[in-house]
Write a structure and sequence with these properties.
This protein is an all-alpha fold and 401 residues long. The chain has a domain of 67 residues: Serine Threonine Protein Phosphatase 5, Tetratricopeptide repeat (Alpha Horseshoe). It has 23 helices and no strands. The longest helix is centred in the first third of the chain and has 17 residues.
């Protein structure tokens, strides 16, 4: 959404679309004197000037819902004024119930105000009047996706694509739908198509990178995410995702740099602080990792991932009793967390408490039966307890014998 604080060049680049949208609405009477000045202000990228002129015209013509509707559209395009836009557009829709463009913009205002079901009703009414209007198909698909109804959303997005097959935005929406449905290969193809039409859109490249991460195509995912960062260098979420991809690719030092940039942009993000600390731990920078984990835990003291990481870090430092405290706090919240159970058992083992270690490894094996490492660890406990035959049986099971 365009904001009035954006650079004038950005406003000018979007002016043709906004002016076209305003022109698509019918005038109840001739455009009032002064409307041309509003259009010229939009062309010049002078958003605040255009809004001020339009408000002045609305005040001068309080009986013109067609003019009020245009102010509502401008507010949606240029500011965050969705609630005011609803108040301005609703009377125009009441006066012209069969005008699909009015229904479209009122639905947009309602959706942004959190009234999704009401927005859906207006889109359906618009489609009954003008079923071939691709914008209504797209808007309904987008809204259904936001409401979690991905299967239905895909039908409407595909309907819009049939009319506008070169729309990068529609291909991007299709990819998001398919991703939410778990159809990752199809989602990747859709996002690739989106980037062909939106080559300078950082969000399109980011979506491609994220879905490629899920399909395991790490190298291509990283290339897409790095391109997204070049286009949107001040986006901490993107930098966080790039850090994740770099870490998966074994490029720990670069991952740390990416996470550091993300933290500098959003220093209170628990997720980014946790990710940076994990990368530092992997890179052997234990002291700084510990400091960041403590910082993150101040913001989210009950975060189980952070507590697990803190416990793991304390284990590396040989502080097993302190590590136990972390894992116990994790297990209070998620009593069947296999990683926390295994780490708790490892602490018991390191402290010579082999009976407790064995019992805890058994719990870990029950919650994560695929992991044969638990069986091997159980064997080590049994061996320390002098139960050699049982230990040998566990080792054989771990080896698949």
């Amino acid at each position: 959404m365009l904001n009035s604080s954006a650079p004038a060049g950005a406003l000018r680049s979007r002016a043709p679309g906004l002016i076209k949208a305003l022109a698509a609405l019918p005038w109840a009477h001739r455009p009032p004197a002064g409307w041309r000045g509003i259009t010229l202000s939009l062309w010049a990228g002078m958003a605040e000037n255009a809004l001020a002129r339009c408000r002045s015209l609305v005040d001068s013509h309080p009986d013109r819902p067609d003019l009020r509707a245009r102010l509502g559209i401008m507010l949606l395009a240029l500011t965050d004024g969705s609630e005011e836009a609803v108040e301005l557009l609703a009377p125009a829709v009441k006066q012209e119930p069969d005008e699909p463009h009015l229904r479209y913009w009122l639905a947009e205002a309602l959706a942004r105000s959190g009234m999704g079901q009401a927005a859906l009703a207006h889109l359906e009414a618009g489609l009954r009047t003008q079923p071939e209007m691709a914008g209504l198909w797209e808007a309904k698909g987008k809204l259904l996706l936001a409401l979690g109804r991905s299967e239905e959303a895909l039908l409407f997005i595909d309907g819009a694509l049939a009319a506008r097959p070169r729309s990068g935005g529609l291909w991007n929406l299709r990819g998001l739908c398919l991703d939410s449905l778990g159809r990752l290969q199809e989602a990747a193809r859709a996002h690739r198509q989106a980037t062909r039409f939106l080559r300078q859109d950082g969000a399109a490249w980011a979506n491609l990178g994220l879905v490629l991460q899920k399909t395991g195509e790490t190298a291509e995912a990283l290339r897409a995410l790095l391109r997204a960062v070049r286009l949107r260098p001040a986006d901490p979420v993107l930098l966080n995702n790039v850090g994740f991809s770099l870490l998966r690719a074994g490029r720990t030092r670069e991952a740390i740099d990416s996470y550091r940039q993300a933290v500098s942009l959003d220093p209170e993000s628990v997720l980014t602080l946790g990710n940076l600390s994990a990368a530092l731990l992997q890179g052997g920078q234990i002291a700084e990792a510990a400091c960041l984990l403590d910082q993150a835990l101040e913001h989210a003291p009950g975060d189980t991932t952070l507590l697990n990481n803190k416990g793991h870090l304390l284990m590396k430092a040989g502080k097993f009793r302190e590590a136990l405290d972390c894992f116990e706090r994790v297990l209070e919240r998620t009593p069947e967390d296999p990683a926390a159970l295994a780490n708790q058992a490892a602490c018991y083992f390191a402290l010579g408490r082999y009976d407790q270690a064995l019992a805890t490894y058994r719990l870990a094996a029950a919650t994560d039966p695929i992991n044969r490492q638990h069986l091997w660890s159980m064997g080590a406990c049994l061996e320390r307890l002098g139960r050699a035959d049982e230990a040998l049986n566990c080792y054989n099971q771990a080896l698949g014998a």
